[in-house]
Design a protein that fits this description.
Length: about 140
Amino acid sequence: MEVLAHERTLTELDHVRLLNLVRRDRRSDGSSAPRLAIEHVLDACAIVASRQAPPDVVTMYSQVVLQDLDTGLRSKLTLCYPADAEPAAGFVSVLSPVGASLLGLRVGCVTRWSTPAGEARAAEILAILFQPEASGDYAM
């Protein structure tokens, strides 16, 4: 299922925290492509209360299973804030191209992004193994 930016869903808490992150980033270093990608998501998403977040939506600190559309390889990623990013351990920043592409999408959606080298990538979200809101954690 292909998705448009306005079909993304964010929790109120994620939206506020990410807006603050973008504002801090803008003050510290001016313009950046990752920030622009996340700003687009923030501007065009549906916002819901954390307690009403659908369990099949990728929120901050959700752990997802992706399947690469070109290779068929599966990977497990956790979407996190930049300070917690550890790509080798599967923790990807929401400001990275893949992180920004995942935020607010549902299981079954296809996400597309470009690598830092400019290579186009695409993957289907197969499952959400953990979502804080579905586990009753509304402040993570």
